[in-house]
Design goal:
The structure is a single chain. The protein has a 6-stranded antiparallel beta sheet with strand order 1-2-3-4-6-5. A 3-stranded antiparallel beta sheet has the order 7-9-10. A two-stranded antiparallel sheet has the order 8-11. The chain has 10 helices and 11 strands. The protein is α+β, with helices and mostly antiparallel strands and about 290 residues long. The longest helix has 23 residues.
């Protein structure tokens, strides 16, 4: 359902397009009730035309709206108007992690700051029973004031007790689109997701490891097979201990025995941040060191 500038959907007036994804099109809109700009996502016609999928979309959107975390984009509203299902969320001013990576090398301090906030956001979602299922640089926003926002929980799934009672066939059906293709983004997808198996927080950890790898190297963990081991480049000469520790985290995140807890990544980031601070002070005292 393409919309034009000036069109209205309930109380929301369209200001312009922001982008499009697998679930639908995204617009910048004005909430005429509260006089604020928001992001409005329209569920695509294929999904909206299926009553079960539309109901699941609205149910999951309402559940995600209950999440209250500084590193997760807030959901304001969800509903239907003139046959179109939509979700309204916080409008984030800034750039995507994809745009930041494309601009060049991330300094260690910047990488640590971003990584720990991504892990914080995921930890908040996981503790509430959510799996993101499509974590990638495009779904991570960096705000103008230095915060990280994880967005697009359109593929999120509640891992509640009901899942434990599902048989394998039902779980596979829920992980696969109606066209028969697995939901998610291949370069960041865990092996279990690619195989249509039941997902838990460990699937997001694999995706986070893929994102960290790209932040460290500037390159995607490019492989058609999620189980393939990526090439590990030489460590940085400037901060070898920091980069070695983060490559170890990447390896652990991408392994079959990865832990489901983001706390390990957050803890590693905190330790690395302390080391980074010491290195930075040393560099100021003796600029010739570490070059």
């Amino acid at each position: 359902m393409p919309l034009s500038v000036g069109d209205k959907l309930g109380p929301y007036r369209i200001l312009g397009p922001l982008g499009a994804g697998g679930m639908g099109e995204v617009y910048r809109a004005r909430d005429t009730r509260l006089d604020r700009d928001v992001a409005l996502k329209i569920l695509n016609e294929t999904a909206a035309g299926n009553a079960d999928r539309r109901a699941r979309f609205e149910r999951e959107a309402r559940a995600v709206a209950a999440l209250n975390h500084p590193n997760i984009v807030a959901i304001y509203d969800v509903g239907s108007e003139d046959g179109a299902s939509f979700i309204v969320s916080e409008l984030v001013a800034g750039e995507s992690l994809r745009a930041r990576i494309s601009r060049g090398h991330l300094a260690v301090r910047e990488l640590l700051k971003i990584a720990v906030q991504i892990a914080d956001g995921l930890a908040g979602a996981h503790s509430a029973g959510f799996v993101h299922r499509d974590l990638k640089p495009e779904n991570i926003m960096l705000t103008t004031d230095g915060r990280v926002k994880v967005l697009d929980f359109g593929l999120a799934k509640l891992t509640d007790a009901a899942d434990a009672s599902e048989d394998d066939e039902t779980r596979t059906e829920r992980a696969v689109t109606e066209e028969g293709s697995v939901v998610g983004s291949a370069p960041y997808m865990s092996p279990e997701q690619a195989e249509g198996r039941k997902l838990d927080a460990r699937s997001d950890i694999f995706s986070l490891g893929s994102v960290l790898y790209e932040m460290l190297t500037g390159k995607r963990r490019h492989s058609a097979a999620p189980t393939a081991r990526p090439p590990w480049p030489p460590f940085s000469r400037r901060s070898p201990s920091l980069h070695q520790s983060w490559f170890r985290i990447c390896r652990a995140s991408l392994s079959a025995r990865r832990c489901a807890a983001c706390e390990k990544i957050r803890g590693a980031a905190s330790r690395s941040w302390a080391t980074c601070g010491s290195c930075w002070k040393s560099q100021k005292r003796n600029p010739s060191r570490g070059r």
